[in-house]
């Protein structure tokens, strides 16, 4: 039987290139293409799929969010622009990946590995579950505080530790993690982060802000009874604090 493959990538040109390479392989049938997590779920609901060729960086839900939502999960080969440090998570969990732009011979190797893995569906599920848990995704990860994130940096995605984050904020409906080097967008809402972050270190101080109290330096009075929390980064960043959350913040800071 042919290996039934779904290509998931928000870039049409990238999908077309992969489809063209797959056309040269025997025993491979592309059952569909998807440009988003929702599109991929729609295909999966109507087509049996053996293998996802899955991009990670996509608008809205990323590839990890899609994968975490699937049960059961097919075999997966990630097609991504990750650098050598971020792919360590894949290597540690024996999960296959292709770095863009991938040469045809590397794609062929990934397809052959996927064929072998399909004989061991329990092993596929174990690897993917451990990968998602290590990246702070999936049901298993919900049992402990979120301590790392995948963030976008140009065409790459990096893995960011929670202790590197000064604060989380929202901008044009997108949520970012602010570090000393800049802002990086994450695939969580502030409400999700408030539930998942370590409550001993992170505190919601405003409807649009969650701060890492380890970086707190000083409280500055603001306008009309509000306050601003100054952080101890080089830029001396100030995060708004709402009146409703000021008392809780002062108690946490021992003020």
Please tell me about this protein's structure.
With 255 residues, this protein is α/β, with parallel strands linked by helices. The chain has 2 domains: 132 residues, Response regulator (Rossmann fold, 3-Layer(aba) Sandwich), CATH 3.40.50.2300; 108 residues, LytTr DNA-binding domain (OB fold (Dihydrolipoamide Acetyltransferase, E2P), Beta Barrel), CATH 2.40.50.1020. It is built from 8 helices and 15 strands. β11 and β12 form a beta hairpin. The N and C termini lie far apart (68 Å). The model has no long low-confidence stretch (mean pLDDT 86).
Short key terms for the protein model shown above:
alpha/beta; 8 helices; 255 residues; OB fold (Dihydrolipoamide Acetyltransferase, E2P); elongated; five-stranded antiparallel beta sheet; 15 strands; Rossmann fold
Secondary structure: elements and pairs:
Elements: E1 3-8, H1 12-22, E2 28-34, H2 37-46, E3 51-55, H3 63-68, E4 75-80, H4 88-92, E5 97-99, H5 104-117, H6 121-134, E6 148-153, E7 156-161, E8 167-171, E9 174-179, E10 182-186, H7 190-196, E11 202-206, E12 209-212, E13 216-221, E14 227-231, E15 238-241, H8 243-253
Parallel strand pairs: 1-2, 1-3, 3-4, 4-5
Antiparallel strand pairs: 6-7, 8-9, 8-12, 9-10, 11-12, 13-14, 14-15
Can you tell me the number of structural domains? Answer: 2
Structural class designation = alpha/beta
CATH topology of the largest domain: Rossmann fold
List SSEs in N-to-C order: EHEHEHEHEHHEEEEEHEEEEEH
Task: Please tally the helical runs, counting DSSP H or I stretches of 4 or more residues.
Answer: 8
Look at the structure and give the mean pLDDT: 86
Q: For the largest sheet, list the strands in their spatial order.
A: 2-1-3-4-5
CATH-level-4 superfamily name of the largest domain: Response regulator
Q: Alpha-carbon distance between the termini? A: 68 Å
How much helix is in the residues? 25-40%
Q: Summarize the biggest pleated sheet.
A: 5 strands, parallel
Number of strands: 15
Question: Radius of gyration over alpha carbons?
Answer: 21 Å
Shape: elongated
């Amino acid at each position: 039987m042919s290996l039934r493959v779904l290509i998931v990538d928000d870039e049409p040109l990238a999908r077309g290139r992969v489809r063209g390479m797959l056309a040269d392989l025997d025993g491979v049938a592309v059952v569909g293409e998807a440009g988003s997590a929702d599109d991929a779920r729609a295909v999966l609901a109507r087509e049996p799929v053996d293998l996802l060729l899955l991009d990670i960086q996509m608008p809205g839900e990323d590839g990890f969010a899609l994968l975490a939502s699937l049960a059961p999960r097919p075999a997966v080969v990630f097609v991504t622009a990750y650098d050598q440090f971020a792919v360590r998570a894949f290597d540690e969990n024996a999960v296959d990946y292709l770095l863009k732009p991938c040469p045809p011979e590397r794609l062929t190797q990934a397809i052959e590995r996927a064929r072998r893995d399909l004989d061991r569906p329990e092993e596929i599920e174990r690897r993917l579950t451990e990968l998602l848990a290590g990246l702070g995704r999936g049901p298993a990860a919900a049992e402990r505080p979120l301590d790392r994130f995948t963030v976008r940096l140009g065409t790459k995605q990096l893995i960011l530790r929670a202790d590197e984050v000064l604060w989380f904020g929202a901008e044009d409906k997108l949520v970012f993690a602010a570090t000393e080097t800049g802002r990086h967008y994450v695939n969580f809402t502030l409400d999700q982060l408030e539930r998942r972050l370590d409550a001993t270190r992170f505190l919601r101080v405003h409807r649009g802000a969650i701060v890492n109290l380890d970086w707190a330096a000083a409280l500055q009075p603001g306008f009309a009874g509000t306050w601003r929390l100054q952080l101890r980064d080089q830029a001396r960043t100030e995060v708004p604090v709402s009146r409703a959350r000021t008392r809780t913040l002062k108690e946490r800071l021992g003020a």
